[in-house]
Amino acid sequence: MEGILFAWPQALVDIPTHYCPGCQHGLAHRLVAEVIDELEIQKKTIGVVPVGCSVMADKYFNLDAQEAAHGRAPAVATGIKRVHPDKVVFTYQGDGDIAAIGMAEIVHAAARGEKITTIFINNAIYGMTGGQMAPTTLVNQVTATSPFGRQQSSTGYPIRLSEMLATLDGAKYIARVSVNDPANMNKAKKAIKTAFETQIRGEGFAMVEVLAACPTNWGLSPVNAKRWLEENMLPQFPLGVYKNSAEVK
Q1: How many Cβ atoms from other residues are within 10 Å of residue 247's Cβ?
Q2: DSSP element (H, E) containing 80
């Protein structure tokens, strides 16, 4: 790799972050920023970040951004996009935010075919508030509120949001990716780029679900957290493109 230079993305601020060691939000930030740079849309892109570990993501992206209440990022993004249809608007949300308190927001934004892009970070747990069970928590997974493991008999099964939203006519591009290794990171970047391009073409709603590790709240080292994701989350949340309307035209 000697002689190869890796430029810092213009759409990403070069400062230390508040994320825990081994947290993969930073990897997702980098991919989003690289896509924004490559599409040359930095000056017309607006991000929307709600409550959660991503609550300070607006500090890291070098572009206009708006905070939203917990779960309400799709509604805020809808308002921004309708007032400024020439802008590229995206939300950056965690699983507790998007699939619990914000479930109605994301479902109806997709159903209406809002021309926004959503980056959904799924680490199967509530991060910022202390590691509680989330809608995406796996059966038998230990969390702060399921110390003996999530029990299907009382709390059901993890929600597969990508599969759910792919059934809606307004959703034009839905994919699930992972940032657990370089090969999957390349695929993740490609999916994120396609999601933004779907909006730029004015086709409708697009979402990329990104499987990511949360070492702190999983109680694992970064290396073991990566292994846990591969052994447990990948089988539960299969990677792939669940809908791409551009392919059926």
Answers
A1: 8
A2: helix 73-83
Residue 249 has pLDDT above 70, yes or no: no
The residue with tokens 């052994």 is 231
Tens digit of each residue's pLDDT (9 = 90 or more) over 208-235? 999 999 999 999 999 999 999 999 999 9
Domain-embedded: residue 6 = no
Q: Count up the domains in the chain and report the number.
A: 1
Amino acid at 129: T
CA nearest neighbour of 6 among 207, 14, 81? 14
Q: Residue 54: how many CB atoms within 10 A of its CB? A: 25
Strand ranges across the sheet with 240-244:
64-67, 45-49, 88-94, 117-122, 205-211, 171-178, 240-244
| Distance from C-alpha of 206 to C-alpha of 116, rounded to nearest angstrom | 7
Whether 13 is in a domain gets the answer no
8-state DSSP, 11: T
User: What does the pLDDT read at residue 248?
Assistant: 61
Q: How far apart are CA 166 and CA 88, in angstroms?
A: 22
Distance CA 46, CA 64 (A): 5
Within a domain: residue 8? no
Question: 75: domain CATH number?
Answer: 3.40.50.970
Range of the domain at 133: 25-243
Confidence of residue 1 (pLDDT cuts 50, 70, 90): very low
Residue 74 CA: distances (Å) to CA of 19, 83, 94: 23, 14, 12
pLDDT value, residue 70: 94
Report yes or no on 231 lying in a domain: yes
pLDDT tops 80 at residue 106: yes
